[in-house]
Amino acid sequence: MALRLRMSGVQKRFGATQALRDVSLEVGDAEVHALIGENGAGKSTLMKVLSGACKPDAGAIELDDRPFTPKNPHHARQCGIAMIYQELNLAPHLSVAENILLGCEPSRFGWLNRSRRRDLARRALAELGHDALDLDQPVSALSVALQQIVEIARAFVGQPKILIMDEPTSSLTQDDAERLFAVIERLRQRGVSIVYISHFLEECKRVCSRFTVLRDGQTVGAGDMQSADLAHIIRLMVGREVTEIYTRVPHSIGKPILQLIDLQGRVKPRGVDLTLHEGEILGIAGLVGAGRTETLRALFGLDRIAKGEVIIYSTPQTHGNPNARLKLGLGLLSENRKEEGLMLNRSVADNLTATRYAPFTRLGFIRGGLQRRCVSEWMSRLSIRARAPGQDVTELSGGNQQKVALGRLLHHEARVLLLDEPTRGIDVGSKAQIYKLIGQLAAEGKAVIFVSSYLPELLGICDRIAVMCRGRVTAVKSATEWTEESIMAAAVGHAEANA
């Protein structure tokens, strides 16, 4: 097999943290190669080295059998390296079309060719099945899932030799993911090599021909993806046996704790009726734009409720801001951890304890030692990889940032947890821990609403699943009565799915 890319002996240190230790990676021409590992294993750092965003301390890179030293991301992109980051890297004030062609704007006689820009942007979106997306809309007005579509479309424009996809389906529905897989195959047939980073091993098995596993910044295994045993790959990733991903903790469902009656927002939701019980894990499925996130935002007081009623603990509580919801015991984990979930300029400790300082305050002052000990316990319980509680949260990997955001809800002792894509960007070992933790919370009598685009986890851990379509709940059934196919049918409004 002819090689498109060879990386050997790559090392990178950030202060006291050795992020990469003598890492090697080989990717063939027109190959889709899976790069696998836990959060903090070094995958994103290695790809930042390749894409010019990060300079290595040691090591060599060869591109098409020639030495390659990327000076910066723009230089790497000119040389044929395009990267889709797990953390969205868009200009929020610019339009969809402007973001897609940012840095690659077509010009004529020194002037920006706007009609050509729109044409190229439309083609890129059409590849992903989103040619109806408004090109003039600012990306800040889009959902996280649609922002991810824009990010992916931007990478397609430059006709790259190597396309790096870092968790590309983490915010996509199954329907959008299927479109992306078809695009990946078309790109491969055109000769594009793809480095595919994902915690969804079933996806890797489906689209990738070979794999490389990183653990603790080192290459610990590589091989043929199609013949690989997924249990063996998981052992390589986590360094231990993971016997069961979807651990069901026995729990009893009690009385209603939360009711939504004809809940409507300014645009979405358009009339949601739901009941959540003590000790229940209620999943919500649906396509992008179905109104799942908007329902949680309205319930938590982030968006205005235009009509309907919210009943919490048998008391009408329709209108309330986030602070009032927190006092009632509700906690929200946003799908957008960068803009709503975390304070990126603060430490792990400050982020994890932001809504509940009472356990370590005295006379209005925070007792730092007690706070650090408390946070250290949560870091251990959630397997958060950080040097210390005082480390800036922005220095953590995306998956570890997600666990900090989840840890804040647990520290707050929320009795109703509103979880919007809680396992986004989290590795398989950590997912198993979080699934078990959610089950334990239900066993304690806490109630959970679990929004996810990943249907296996909804079917694996939820008691009931509600499916939303066009702002409404179209069906609610016991998880045992659903299949992936019937959920998708209900999500697109197929009448038979509601029977």
Which secondary-structure class do the elements indicate?
alpha/beta
Number of helices: 17
Q: CATH topology of the largest domain, what is it called?
A: Rossmann fold
How can the largest sheet be summarized? 6 strands, mixed
Shape, per Cα inertia axes: globular
Number of strands: 24
Stretches where pLDDT is under 50 for at least 5 consecutive residues are: none
Could you give the distance between the termini? 52 Å
Helix residue percentage? 25-40%
The CATH architecture classification of the largest domain is 3-Layer(aba) Sandwich
CATH superfamily of the largest domain: P-loop containing nucleotide triphosphate hydrolases
Strand content: 25-35%
Compact summary:
With 499 residues, this protein is an alpha/beta fold. It has 17 helices and 24 strands.
Structure description:
This protein has 499 residues and is α/β, with parallel strands linked by helices. It folds into 2 domains: 3-238, 3-Layer(aba) Sandwich (Rossmann fold), CATH 3.40.50.300; 256-498, Rossmann fold (3-Layer(aba) Sandwich). The strands form 6 sheets. Strands 6-9-10-3-11-12 form a 6-stranded mixed β-sheet, sandwiched between helices. The chain has a 6-stranded mixed β-sheet with strand order 18-21-22-15-23-24, sandwiched between helices. A hairpin with a 4-residue loop joins strand 13 (256-265) and strand 14. The longest helix has 16 residues, at 174-189. It is globular. It starts with a strand and ends in an 8-residue tail after the last helix.
